[in-house]
Design goal:
Elements lengths: L2 H31 L3 H23 L4 E3 L9 E4 L6 E3 L3 H4 L12 H9 L21 H24 L4
Antiparallel strand pairs: 1-2, 2-3
Helix pairs in contact: 1-2, 1-5, 2-5
Length: about 160
């Protein structure tokens, strides 16, 4: 695939992640109003994940590549500069490890500090959606809502400024 086509496909995915993140966030807020904590928690995790993936595709494309040709449903992956190994950009608890790729320049330390606040998702587990929901309390959801809002705010800030630092 020519480089121009690859960049165009990355731009489409970046935009799709951003739109999905906002949609998941708003749906989660709606569910909170009905005290449906487990599903709201699930969607806040997806909202933060989508915002970070969008940022990674836009600003760290030199470190993020995308599987193409129909394999693995076009899932993005990254190379960990500390280990040199590739890994999938999975769900929010896995994407947090790639977020420091965005922390460079004068704004790098502030970005790292913001990403540290997203660590409330470190224990978030996709498999929670199959459990009975007792592991998710309203206080857990409140913290994750705040973190998801932060991730979306970072995306909005970087969308406006066109840079991460």
């Amino acid at each position: 695939m020519p480089d121009e086509d690859v960049r165009a496909q990355d731009a489409v995915m970046e935009q799709q992640y951003a739109l999905a993140g906002a949609r998941h966030y708003h749906d989660a807020v709606y569910l909170c109003g009905d005290q449906r904590w487990p599903t709201a928690d699930h969607l806040f995790g997806f909202a933060a994940e989508c915002a970070l993936k969008s940022l990674l595709l836009r600003f760290a494309v030199h470190d993020v590549s995308t599987y193409r040709n129909g394999t693995a449903a076009n899932r993005a992956r990254w190379v960990n500069p500390l280990t040199g190994k590739e890994d999938w950009l999975g769900h929010i608890n896995q994407v947090l490890g790639a977020a420091p790729l965005l922390a460079y320049g004068r704004g790098g330390p502030a970005f790292v500090e913001a990403v540290d606040r997203l660590n409330v998702f470190a224990s978030w587990d996709l498999a929670d959606r199959y459990r009975d929901g007792r592991q998710v309390s309203d206080s857990v959801v409140a913290g994750r809502q705040e973190a998801a809002r932060l991730a979306l705010s970072l995306y909005e800030l970087y969308e406006l400024t066109g840079r991460t630092s």
